[in-house]
Amino acid sequence: MKTILTNKHISIQTRKIALQCYIEPVLMYGCEAWTISKQIQNKLEATEMWFLRRMLRIPWTAKKTNERVLNEANKRRSLIRTIRKRQATFLGHVMRR
After folding, report:
1. pLDDT greater than 90 at residue 97
2. What CA–CA distance (Å, rounded) separates 73 from 23?
3. Which residues contact 24 (CB under 8 A, 6 or more apart)?
4. 18 band by pLDDT with thresholds 50, 70 and 90
5. For residues 28-40, average pLDDT
6. d(Cα 45, Cα 62) in Å, to the nearest integer?
7. Is Transferase included in the keywords of this UniProt record (predicted)?
8. Which residue of 29, 30, 39, 52 is surrounded by the most CB atoms within 10 Å?
């Protein structure tokens, strides 16, 4: 997927869709049963930012804040929110048996 996510000829919107469709589900596999501590949450947020920086071809040595990278990508952090939503849905299924 690296060639697709870093390709300059593909629009950033298309690359974000590819990230959301092909990579995030693999990253979140089994997240319904996870216990998310602050340390794990920070690692997940760092992973999300790593993917965005790779898509925008921003090196890790560049002095750009995460907020600036998110603004360039016209995206908000959504990985933790999606995981929490899946966990709540799973809890509802468990409660209903």
Report:
1. no
2. 17
3. 79, 82
4. very high
5. 92
6. 18
7. yes
8. 52
